[in-house]
Write a sequence for this structure.
């Protein structure tokens, strides 16, 4: 291949000249994609005297074989900086030697409009490997920040004995969905997200065929809905990937083409395009020739207009003109959506999405709010607090989690959340404390929601665990074994011995995926003997000696923080650690007004400031949010006011 002046075309030189990113941003792209140990680091490239570090980085990427991945990441950053999607789509075919470009190497299939190509590129990024207890099981793809769609036979368990096993209505335990890495992240490791602990299977239809994956070969309508799909709710939201658009439901036409994109059991995705052989709208299935290999069950299928057409079900062999020929079969997204609506009486893909930084969707937190208020209220005011909560919850009993509304406000804690997202390497210790009732302990929920959604990055250690207990029980996420429900059969492990804990973190096989954030909530009560002069100091120092550990200590007094920090400075293994103290004050009326504006925006309600204040007046009126002698309840009353307002939006 040559350019217009007959010079050999070099994709690396082209990418270096095409990008408009400044070197500091391009450095982030390079560092997030280069394979450590085989390619030169950015710092090595700069140190080698390259006058143009971007060109040097592109040439190194081309030599080592990751230029296509670098081009993908550069394209995303270019779009974020105002570059048009068409420009990026035009760049990708000239720099990518695999992945999505492998689908159009066969010129006989013809090139597509860049807009269609970009849609498939987005779908490729939205796909995830589905990992089960025994390894890779198939492919899923993101349809909402908190949900993935896949084939039912990828995730459903079975029931019965070996001779008569049938599909069950439950998914496998310990499912993990492995997504592409975050752009610009310090580590290029994939992002691993678990299925939700409760109600993970949102909607499904059993496969048409026998367990484990023997499919019925007919395209006709099955005797009952067997569309072989599963809609799975994730334990945490995936914020760094754009979901595949599910509306309006699209389809395929015979003799036109469709794409398949998914993972055949490894980190490298597969993309292909070919003709649709036959489509049966009534049965909700179609046959196509686009390549799909084992492991791509549940993969995303895109029509030639760049719209989601359905999911890849599997391969079938059918007689054609006297011989058996292999085909692949897809399941219509329109049929899937109709089944979801008829089965549940609603469309779960269009249900409200919880907005990070605005809300939590957890009835347990609502009950926790009630119990926290009971602890904070003075005896003379406790009846007022109980009456206020019951007025908001109506008939629901605040002492029981069953039947409580799930909405709970998220009052943003800017400094703490900024530390979660952008802490410098030395800032691995965070002290969180504040006014009584301001929500220091509640920061644990913010932390879990803000961490990389791997399900393995957050570990809480109870300060009451001063007797013997096993590291498996203290750190359930770090072990592949099932956590013990109690500490009665504990191993010889005490809170002043962090070595077993560190070994447990490493031994889970997930230690390299990024830093672990450990939390110890000491609560509001206690004196100097709970930390100063105890073995907790040794325990904390040992943890922080590990570079892959970040530690959040909640509720310590200023004196305790000072003593602990001085202890770290005296230890060569921790002397470089910078402690970040964060003091929380109660939510103010101005902060609450700003929060309500964000909540209204999240619900699609546009309110002018005057209208907003008019709506707030009758809500805040009954709540003496700063009652004399009960200042500890101020933020809690604002939370009740937010719940009242949300119910009316």
């Amino acid at each position: 291949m040559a350019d217009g002046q007959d010079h050999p075309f070099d994709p690396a030189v082209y990418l270096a000249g095409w990008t408009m990113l400044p070197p500091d941003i391009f450095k982030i792209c390079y560092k997030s994609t280069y394979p450590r140990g085989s390619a030169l680091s950015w710092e090595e490239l700069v140190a080698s005297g390259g006058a143009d570090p971007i060109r040097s980085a592109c040439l190194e990427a081309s030599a080592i074989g990751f230029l296509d991945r670098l081009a993908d990441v550069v394209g995303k950053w270019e779009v974020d900086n105002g570059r048009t999607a068409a420009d990026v789509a035009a760049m990708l075919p000239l720099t990518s030697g695999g992945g999505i470009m492998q689908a159009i190497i066969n010129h006989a299939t013809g090139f597509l409009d860049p807009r269609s190509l970009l849609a498939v590129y987005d779908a490729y990024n939205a796909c995830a490997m589905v990992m089960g207890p025994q390894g890779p099981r198939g492919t899923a793809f993101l349809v909402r920040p908190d949900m993935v769609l896949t084939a039912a036979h990828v995730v459903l368990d079975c029931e019965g004995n070996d001779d008569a096993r049938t599909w069950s209505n439950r998914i496998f335990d310990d499912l993990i969905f492995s997504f592409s890495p975050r752009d610009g992240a310090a580590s290029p490791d994939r992002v691993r997200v678990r299925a939700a602990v409760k109600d993970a299977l949102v909607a499904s239809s059993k496969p048409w065929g026998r367990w484990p994956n023997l499919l019925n070969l007919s395209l006709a309508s099955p005797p009952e809905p067997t569309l072989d799909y599963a809609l799975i709710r994730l334990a945490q939201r995936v914020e760094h990937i754009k979901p595949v658009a599910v509306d309006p439901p699209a389809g395929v036409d015979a003799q036109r083409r469709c794409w398949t994109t998914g993972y055949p059991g490894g980190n490298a995705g597969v993309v292909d395009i070919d003709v649709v052989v036959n489509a049966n709208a009534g049965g909700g299935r179609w046959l196509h020739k686009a390549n799909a290999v084992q492991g791509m069950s549940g993969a995303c299928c895109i029509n030639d207009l760049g719209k989601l057409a359905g999911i890849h079900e599997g391969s079938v062999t059918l007689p054609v003109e006297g011989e058996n020929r292999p085909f692949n079969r897809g399941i219509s997204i329109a049929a899937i959506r109709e089944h979801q609506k008829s089965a549940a009486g609603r469309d779960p893909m269009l249900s409200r999405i919880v907005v990070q930084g605005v809300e939590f969707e957890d009835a347990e937190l609502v009950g926790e709010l009630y119990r926290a208020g009971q602890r904070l209220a003075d005896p003379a005011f406790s009846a007022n607090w109980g009456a206020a909560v019951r007025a908001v919850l109506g008939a629901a009993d605040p002492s029981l989690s069953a039947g409580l509304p799930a909405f709970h406000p998220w009052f943003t804690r800017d400094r703490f959340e900024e530390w979660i997202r952008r802490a410098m390497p030395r800032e691995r210790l965070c002290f969180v404390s504040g006014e009584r009732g301001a929500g220091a302990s509640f920061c644990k929920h913010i932390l879990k929601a803000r961490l990389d959604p791997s399900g393995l990055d957050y570990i809480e250690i109870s300060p009451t665990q001063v007797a013997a207990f096993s590291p498996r029980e203290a750190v359930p996420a770090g072990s592949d074994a099932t956590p013990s429900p109690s500490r009665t059969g504990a191993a010889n492990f005490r809170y002043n011995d962090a070595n077993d804990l560190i070994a447990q973190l490493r031994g889970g096989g997930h230690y390299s995926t990024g830093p672990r954030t450990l939390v110890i909530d000491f609560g509001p009560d206690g004196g100097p003997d709970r930390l100063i002069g105890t073995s907790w100091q040794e325990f904390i120092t040992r943890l922080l000696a590990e570079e892959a550990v970040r530690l959040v200590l909640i509720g310590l007094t200023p004196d305790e923080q000072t003593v602990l920090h001085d202890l770290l400075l005296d230890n060569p293994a921790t002397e470089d650690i910078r402690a970040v103290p964060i003091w929380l004050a109660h939510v103010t009326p101005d902060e609450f007004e700003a929060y309500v504006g964000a909540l209204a925006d999240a619900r699609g309600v546009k309110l002018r400031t005057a209208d907003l204040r008019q709506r707030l007046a009758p809500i805040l009126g009954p709540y003496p949010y700063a009652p004399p002698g009960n200042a500890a309840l101020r933020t809690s009353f604002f939370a009740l006011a937010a719940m009242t307002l949300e119910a009316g939006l």
User: Anything to note?
Assistant: The chain has a mean pLDDT of 79. The radius of gyration is 28 Å. DSSP finds 20 helices and 24 strands in the chain.
